[in-house]
Every structure is written in structure tokens, then in C-alpha cells.
């Protein structure tokens, strides 16, 4: 039996080590995402034969993330299958990329039925593109930013710090009141996850940026590293009645990441959850790649 435990901050060091060994680009393969969403999805973790094994309960019911680590993954999958038998639930793997499918088919031919999950697939953007917004396709984004600058002479961008994080809580609280019916924030779980991210921002090695207008914070964003060349944008909030505020915080944070981490190639702006408005917004920046994800159900 796998000795699963609820994820805590004390698990960060060993989880980070095994995530680094797996070197995945999916947004769920970060300690921060596992931790801040742990209450919503009942996330539990275990170390099995050099791999991180994650068990959770989401829209697919009880399931396992595809393991991350190095070594004999076959033995790990077999132990996960046995755990599902002992606990009398389906053996279902999620967050599987094409390489994982090839691996499973080589080790366990015909064992699984695979299904693509487009609503869970992540959008990847070249950090240079989001920082500069060059080219005809992004002409509209540049126009939004130009109108923001022309209309607001006294604006500034700054990193989130201990000194200004209290202003982020205030913006989030007001933003949530204004967007309770917004499809992007349809329940309290995301609200809880965002506050959890702010509560433990520095312990999780997360960072963020905020946009000021006349001294008032009008937009903010929070993110963190996934692997050597990919950076994850966890959250982004802005007052939508301030024209260009979303485009501006997006560009300024991309510039901040580009300058701070020159080795980063991609910004992962996560999935669209199948929401038409969110999908349109993410597609409007013309992603350079997608992290396509699948689930695998055991056929036994």
C-alpha cells in the first residue's frame, strides 16, 4: 500500500527534487500548484521508488497524476494500480503528455484507454513575444497598451514584496466582489487558492508584480518556475473597466521575467477550463505551443 499523506510546506524540498527530475511543462507539475489547490482537490503525495506520486479528487473523481521522477517507472505504475485495487476505486491517470502515452504503451500495451482533455491543456507563449508584442497579429494588444499609457500618465509596475503584499489582498477582495458572476471566478475555491498563494508567497518561491495607477494598485499577477525554460502564470487580476490594464500587467510581468530569468523561453498561462471567454482571451495572444494532456483509464 502506498503511504499517501496530505501535502504540506515541509514536503517542498523532496517534491521539488522529483519534479525537477521529471522536467515536465504542465502547470500541475509544480509544488506551488499542488499546495495552493490541495484543499479544493484533496491532494495527497507519496514517494515511490524515486518518483513523486500524487493522488487527488477532481472532476474525474479519485485519480492519480502521472508520476514524476526517474528510475523504474513500471514498478511505480504497478504500485499505483495496486493502491486503486486496495482502495476500491478506478485506476485513472491524468495530466499525461504524449511521451507518457508512449511510455505506458511500451510498458503496458493495451492496458489503458486514452482520452485527450483539451480543456486542461496549457497555453505556452514565447516570453520575448509577450514582452515586446511585435508583429501584425498582436497589433490589437499594442493598441490597448498605447491607450492605457495615453490615458494614464502616472502608472508604474513593481514586484510584489512584503511591503506591498497587503495591497494585493485588498485588490483581490474588491476584484472578487466585482466579478462574483464572472465565468473566470465561478466559485470560492479559486478565491481560496489565490489567498493561499499570497499567504505563502515567499515560502513557495512564488513571485508577482502589480500595476499602479495614481498610486492605487489596479492589476496584479502571481507566478513561479515550472522547470529550467518554462515559467507558470498562476493568477492574474485587473480592473476590466480600466482599458488595457490586463494587457499592461501581462506585458510588464513578461518583461520582468525576461530580465530576471534570461534562460526562460516560455510562459505557461495555464488552461482555459473549457470556458469560451477565457479560451478567446488566451487564443488572442496566439500561443506558440500547447501542453496537450490526456487521461488514461485502466481497461481491467
Describe this structure in words.
With 300 residues, the chain is an alpha+beta fold. It has two domains: 5-120, Gcn5-related N-acetyltransferase (GNAT) (Aminopeptidase); 123-270, Aminopeptidase, CATH 3.40.630. 38% of the residues lie in helices and 26% in strands. It has eleven helices and 15 strands. The strands form two sheets. Strands 1, 2, 3, 4, 5, 6, 7 and 15 form an eight-stranded mixed beta sheet that branches. Helix 8 packs antiparallel against helix 9. It is elongated. The mean pLDDT is 94.
Biggest sheet overview: 8 strands, mixed
Mean pLDDT: 94
Which strand-content bin applies to the residues? Answer: 25-35%
Order of helices and strands: EHHHEEEEHEHEEHHEHHEEEHEHEE
General shape: elongated
Radius of gyration: 20 Å
CATH class of the largest domain: Alpha Beta
How many structural domains can be distinguished in the coordinates?
A: 2
CATH architecture of the largest domain: 3-Layer(aba) Sandwich
Terminus-to-terminus distance: 19 Å
Counting DSSP E segments of at least 2 residues, the number of strands comes to 15
Percent in helix? 25-40%
Model regions low in confidence, pLDDT < 50 over at least 5 residues: none
Specify the structural class.
alpha+beta
Determine the number of helices (DSSP H or I, runs of at least 4 residues): 11
Name the CATH superfamily classification of the largest domain: Gcn5-related N-acetyltransferase (GNAT)
What is the third-level CATH name, the topology of the largest domain?
Aminopeptidase
